[in-house]
Amino acid sequence: MAAIDDIREPIKDHLKAFEKTFRSSLKSSVPLLDIITHYILRRKGKQMRPMFVLLTSELCGGINESAYRAASLIELLHTATLVHDDVVDNSDIRRGLFSVNALWKNKIAVLVGDYLLSKGLLIALDHGEYTLLKIVSDATRDMSEGELLQIEKARKLDITEEIYFEIVRKKTASLIAACCATGAAAAHAAGDTVEAMRRFGQNVGIAFQIKDDLFDFDVRNLTGKPNGLDIREKKLTLPLIHMLKEKDLPEKRRIINTIRHHRNDPQKLHELIEEVNHSGGIAYAHGIMMDYRGKAFAILRTFPDSAARRSLEGLVNYTIERRS
């Protein structure tokens, strides 16, 4: 797996320019907001989403000011969703630091998330970036629908593989698809190229989510994510869905009963994770993940070889080979 610094290499100077645009977009006349946004910037992650935007722009014609705005728009949306997610999930920790809601309570966290969303919209409107605004607005709608669909299905525990992929396309893959579509649009690529890169990002996003699903059943527990967290939240993910599909009705009822009534029992949770590991569900999900990786690569390889294309290939591999 390529190191993240090697993947960044073709756009490292552009990432610095993006960072400047992003930081300036967060400024406010309200001191409390500036304190909180400064705190949020301290917990910045690997910048994978801005990397997808900028590498796609480079691949499709070249990076420009519009690409920096696209990356900022995506990052503002992503950061807003993380702040809101921590409120919804009642999470106190985000990337090893206290969450916004843990430090400033839910009301302020919700308002900060709303502020970040509005700043993203204004970046697009102030510069006439209506195509970028449409792409990101579609992604915002899809993410909300996907989250609500997942909550509905968690209550009923009746999720099928078809519904699982609908949730993943909306909740997770739509944002990475938007990264790649906005990157292509910012480079003034033709409509069919923008659509191709949207599909590329969607395939990567689905593979990314399946990788996250697999972490939940990792008996080695190397990720820092508690084993069985999805099960505790009554989220049926691909390895578990596949196992249920292969079981007869009494066995299905037993497993669903465990998830519904005993998901917080450490022993029963461990037994269920072990059962999934021995059922073929892990291998099945891994195979599907690799299929989506192959679909993403097939789209990339319609473009001429370049440093940007190789970095995008490395970034795809990074998403499915990461250990956290």
Descriptive account of the structure:
Helices cover 76% and strands 1% of the residues. The protein is an all-alpha fold and 324 residues long. It has one domain: Farnesyl Diphosphate Synthase. Strand 1 and strand 2 form a beta hairpin. The protein is globular. The two termini are 14 Å apart.
What is the tally of helical segments? Answer: 15
The ordered H/E elements are HHHHHEEHHHHHHHHHH
Q: Order of strands across the biggest sheet?
A: 1-2
What oligomerization state is this entry in?
A: single chain
Round the mean pLDDT to the nearest integer and report it.
Answer: 91
Care to count the β-strands?
A: 2
- Under CATH, the topology can be stated as Farnesyl Diphosphate Synthase
Structural class: mainly alpha
Q: Which radius of gyration do the C-alpha atoms yield? A: 20 Å
Shape: globular
Compute the separation of the termini in Å: 14 Å
Question: How many structural units, i.e. domains?
Answer: 1
The CATH architecture designation is Orthogonal Bundle
Which regions contain 5 or more consecutive residues with pLDDT less than 50? none
CATH superfamily: Farnesyl Diphosphate Synthase
Largest sheet: 2 strands, antiparallel
Top-tier CATH class: Mainly Alpha
Percentage of β-strand residues: under 5%
Query: Share of helix among residues?
Result: over 70%
